[in-house]
Amino acid sequence: MKYLSSYFTFATAIALLFSFEPPSLDISEKFVQCLYNYPHISNSVSNIVYAQTNSSYSSILDMSIRNYRFFNLSSKPQVIVTPLEVFHIQATIMCSQRHGLQILTRSGGHDYEGLSYVAEVPFVLIDIFNLRQITVDVENQTAWVQAGATLGELYYTISQKSKTLGFPAGVCATVGTGGHFSGGGYGFLMRKYGLAADNIIDAHIIDVNGNLLDRKAMGEDLFWAIRGGGGASFGVIVAWKIKLVPVPSTVTVFNVARTLEENATEIIQKWQLVANKLDERIFIRVDVKKVNSSEPGKQTIQANFVSMFQGGVEELIPLMQKSLPELGLERKDCTETSWIGSVVFANAVLLGSTVNEAPEVLLNRSRFRPGINKAKSDYVRKPIPIDGLQGLWRLLYEVPDGELQFAPYGGKMD
Ligand SMILES: Cc1cc2nc3c(=O)[nH]c(=O)nc-3n(C[C@H](O)[C@H](O)[C@H](O)COP(=O)(O)OP(=O)(O)OC[C@H]3O[C@@H](n4cnc5c(N)ncnc54)[C@H](O)[C@@H]3O)c2cc1C
Questions:
Q1: ipTM value of the model?
Q2: pLDDT digits (tens, 9 = 90+) for 91-145
Q3: Residue nearest ligand 1's atom 17 by CA
Q4: Which of 62, 67, 70, 107 to mutate to test the pocket of ligand 1 (most atoms within 8 A of CB)?
Q5: Residue 323: which of 408, 393, 392 has the closest Cα?
Q6: What is the mean pLDDT of the chain?
Q7: CB count, 10 Å around CB of 12?
Q8: Which is an annotated GO molecular function term of this record (predicted)?
Q9: C-alpha 66 to ligand 1 mean position (Å)
Q10: Which one is the CATH code of 134-246: 3.40.50.1010, 3.55.40.20, 3.30.465.10, 3.40.190.10?
Q11: What is the Cα–Cα distance from 305 to 285, expressed in whole angstroms?
C-alpha cells in the first residue's frame, strides 16, 4: 500500500508532541490536547475523537458490542478514536503512552470476552471500523484488506470481482478481519485450504513506537506471531495481504436436522468417525441444541448437519451415501449455489433466518444481534462415546439456552 514508505521516519516527529498541556486538565483532556498538538493532525481530530462528553460517544461504543454481558459496564474508554488515516493511529499510540493510558483496538467487536473494549485500567479505544478498504487483484489472486473490514465485506468484494475465487475464513459476516485473522480464523473451506491465518502473505502493523511495518520490516518472527497469536499483543494491525483460493462456480449446501427420535446421537457418533476423513472439499458442521418435540409439552435434542461441498449435488450424494448413509441425505435436502451463495446460506443458518437473501446482506455490519452469551472452544481428539454424548444432552436440557457446535478438521488441518 502506498502510504507505507512515507511513515517509516515517524519516530523523528515524536518530540513535537510535548508542547504545553495545562496541568488542570484531566487525563482524557490531556490526551485529546496531545492529539491536537500532533503534527498535521489538528484539522481532523474533531472528526475522529469521542470523549465521554461527546453526544455520539455511546453510540460509537455500543455499535460493535456483540455481547450484552458487556453493555453499560462502569469501566468505559476514556476516549474513543476512530482513525481515518495511519497517522491517526500513530498519534494515538504516542499520546496514550504519554498520558499512561492503555490502548484497546477493536475491529468487529466479536471477542467472546469483550477484550477489544473492556479493561480495568484507564484506556483509549481505537475502533478501526473506518479503515475497511479492500482491493482485489484477480490476476495475482491476492487482496489487500484493511483490518477494520468485516468478513462479509471481504467475501462480498471478492465475489464482485470473481465467481471462482474465495477466501478460507469464518462464517459470521460481521466478524472483523482484525481480530479474526490474527487469531486463526476457521470456516467452511478450512479442510481444503487451512485457516485464514495460513493464507496471509503480508501485513501492515504499527508497533509500540509508532512505526508502520510491513512483513519485511517486522521480520518473520513477528509476522508468524500476528497470524494466530492475537494482533493486540503486538501492535495495531492496519491491513492484511491475503492469498485468495480457487472455488468452483457451483457448490452445494445443506442443513439437515435430526432429533434424538431420529437417531441424532448415533448419527453424530458415526459423523465423529468420518467427518475429518472425507474428501477435503466437504465440510459438515454439527450444531446441537434443545428444541420443542413434536410431542406436545416435551423437549428433545436436535442436531443440525450444516454443510458445504465444493462441487455439484450429483457428486455429493454418492459421496454421502458411501461415508455417512445414516444421515439419509437426499437430493431435495441440497441446494446448488455459488461460493458467495454458500456464505449467505451459512449466515442465514447462524441467524436462524429462512429467507432467501441477496449477497448484499453480508455488508450489514449490525446484522448480528447481540445477546447475553458465554462462548468457549476446545479440541476433541478422540471420538466422544455415546454415553458421553448423552451426558452433554443432559447438560443442554439443564441450561435455558445452550448450544454445542462441532467442527471437523482433517485435510489441510491435519
Ligand atoms: C457470532 C460469532 C461467530 C464467530 N464465528 C467464527 C467462525 O466461524 N470461525 C472462527 O474462527 N471464529 C469465529 N468467531 C470468533 C472470532 O473469530 C473471534 O472472536 C475474533 O477474534 C473476532 O474478531 P473481531 O475483529 O470481530 O473482534 P474484536 O473484538 O474487535 O477483536 C478481537 C481481538 O483482536 C484484537 N484486534 C482487533 N483488531 C485488531 C487490530 N487491527 N490490530 C490488533 N489487534 C486487533 C482485539 O483487541 C481483541 O483482542 C465467532 C465469534 C462470534 C461472536
A1: 0.99
A2: 999 999 999 999 999 999 999 999 999 999 999 999 999 999 999 999 999 999 9
A3: 180
A4: 107
A5: 408
A6: 93
A7: 8
A8: FAD binding
A9: 11
A10: 3.30.465.10
A11: 6
Give me the CATH code for the 2-127 domain, please: 3.30.43.10
CA distance 45 to 35: 7
Mean pLDDT of 73-83: 94
Cα dihedral 361, 174, 128, 189, rounded to 10, equals: -110
Ligand 1 atom having least distance to the Cα of 148: 41
Please state the rounded mean pLDDT for residues 154-162: 98
CATH 3.40.462.20 domain locations along the chain = 251-371+379-413
Grid cell 454415553 in the structure block, residue = 387
Residue 24, amino acid: S
Distance 104 CA to ligand 1 centre (A): 13
Task: Check residue 187 and give left, alpha or beta (phi > 0: left; psi -120 to 50: alpha).
Answer: beta
Second-level CATH architecture of 251-371+379-413: 3-Layer(aba) Sandwich (3.40)
The sheet carrying 251-259 orders its strands as 334-337, 251-259, 299-309, 282-292, 403-406
Atom number of ligand 1 nearest to Cα 64: 30
Ligand 1 contact, 341 CB (< 6 A): no
Q: What distance in Å separates the CA atoms of residue 40 and residue 43, rounded to the nearest whole number?
A: 7
- pLDDT tops 70 at residue 308: yes
Start and end residues for every CATH 3.30.43.10 domain found in the chain? 2-127
